[in-house]
Design brief:
Helices cover 31% and strands 24% of the residues. The chain has 418 residues and is an alpha/beta fold. The structure holds flavin-adenine dinucleotide (FAD).
């Protein structure tokens, strides 16, 4: 099989790169073995929340420019501050064109509310999520937090404890329905995706609307776990209209319904643009000839190679097995690319869970065009994007989705220029 570009990994970075290339008319394939980090997403996309030294960032574009000074190996510094600013303006359009309704501004972070009720700086949030322009500036004075009976991955008490710090009056409500009984019999089935399917039925959504209407009496707004709309996009509008009050969603523990929807939307968009998506297939090996990747081989296609002029490594970090830690080194398993890490395992992490752990910044070694380095030499037609890049701390710096989107757009632009 021959393509212009083959992308390995279909998470946020691989999809964004593939969409951009397919939009420009390239014959493009994505091979992806399974779920990606976006299936576990909060419903928000972070660009830059903190600098490496811990200083809070309110204007991510200015923050990215500062990174070039203090942290030259950060992907934003490698991509360049001006390019980053340009891609940060473009990325929301790419998401919206795929049907992911996001709001936010790369010049001003807003705050999303975590499953524990804490405020966290972010860039773009999917429509319907509870966000605030500043910490504590909530759009209501009293709220009813409603959970589904028996659902253990949502914590109304913790959320209320946080909201009460800002003098928000909180009440609790709950919802039950005979169609939930089936999945409630087994606690491990009482998960977000199974519950969300129950609310895809009109009658069940209507029953929820009725229960919310009764429980919300006297409140300004309602908060629900993000358990609606896995296969339809009118659920929240429907509930808001029927209840007659603002309703806000909060993320639950994974799997994430907005994340699953976002992944499906990106996949659909890529295919609609003519891209070929090989889901459930893993790239196992490659052949390199004269400093270029000539072909790759996958589990499902055996000895039938994927050939292309360009390849993009978008296999993610440890979470997606794009990087693997052995006892004493960090391995990139598809190409055996060089990796950036620390020599001694004791330097990889600290004993305090919430610390900044060095392993989080480990990744694939690249040149300043994000081309992958193997055995000290650049592979001319292999680029790396996304969570597998070295030099950034996605959790502490709040930049996970931003690095994935901006590096994907940067690499797509270079491939198209070439
Ligand atoms: C659990 C979790 C939750 C997160 N939530 C957020 C959030 O809410 N907001 C935010 O801004 N950031 C979040 N992040 C940060 C996250 O890293 C980025 O947001 C981004 O989604 C990463 O996308 P990616 O495409 O680079 O990698 P991934 O999403 O990890 O995708 C890599 C893909 O490559 C595939 N793959 C791996 N190896 C192979 C192979 N050999 N052959 C074929 N396919 C392969 C994997 O199956 C996977 O689909 C989260 C990260 C994690 C781990």
């Amino acid at each position: 099989m021959r393509f212009d570009t083959v992308i390995i990994g279909g998470g946020l970075a691989g999809m964004a790169c593939g969409i951009r290339l397919a939009q420009a008319g390239q014959r493009c394939a994505i091979v992806s073995q399974g779920q990606s980090a976006i299936h576990f997403s909060s419903g928000s996309f972070d660009l830059l929340g903190r600098l490496p030294g811990g200083e809070a960032v309110s204007d991510p574009v200015a923050g990215m420019a500062a990174l070039a000074e203090c942290c030259p190996s950060h992907p934003y510094a490698v991509i360049g501050a001006e390019n980053c600013a340009r891609y940060a303006q473009e990325a929301p359009g790419l998401l919206r064109e795929a049907g992911i309704r996001v709001a936010g501004d790369c010049r001003r972070n807003h705050f999303r509310i975590t499953p524990m009720g804490k405020a966290k700086a972010t860039w773009l949030s999917i429509d319907g999520y509870l966000t605030t322009p500043q910490v504590g500036e909530f759009p209501f004075k009293s709220v009813c937090i409603v959970n589904i009976e028996g659902f253990l991955d949502f914590y109304p008490e913790f959320i209320a404890e946080e909201l009460r710090k800002y003098n928000i009056e909180c009440r609790f409500g709950s919802f039950n329905h005979p169609d939930l009984e089936q999945i409630r019999r087994n606690p491990s089935e009482m998960r977000s995706a199974n519950i969300a399917r129950v609310f895809d039925h009109d009658a069940n959504l209507e029953a929820l609307a009725e229960a919310l209407r009764q429980q919300a009496t006297g409140c300004d707004a309602l908060i629900l776990p993000a358990l609606i709309g896995i296969n339809r996009n009118d659920s929240l509008e429907y509930l808001r209209e029927r209840v007659g009050l603002p309703i806000y969603l909060l993320p639950t523990l994974p799997p994430s319904i907005p994340g699953i929807r976002a992944q499906q939307a990106l996949q659909h968009r890529f295919r609609a643009l003519g891209g070929e998506y090989f889901l459930g297939d893993s790239v196992l090996s490659s052949e390199i000839e004269q400093g270029r990747v000539a072909r790759i081989f996958t589990a499902n296609h055996g000895n039938i190679p994927f050939e292309a002029r360009r390849f993009v490594l978008a296999t993610g970090s440890f979470f997606s097995k794009g990087l693997v830690a052995t006892f004493d080194r960090i391995v990139e398993p598809v190409f055996g690319a060089d990796t950036v890490s620390r020599p001694s395992r004791s330097e990889w992490y600290t004993l305090h869970f919430f610390d900044r752990h060095e392993y989080q910044a480990f990744g694939v070694r690249t040149d300043n065009r994000l081309r992958v380095v193997k055995e000290g030499a650049v592979l001319e037609n292999l680029y790396a994007v996304g969570a597998g890049l070295a030099g950034f701390h996605p959790v502490q710096e709040g930049c996970g989705a931003g690095v994935s989107l901006l590096s994907a757009l940067h690499v797509a632009e270079q491939i198209l220029k070439d």
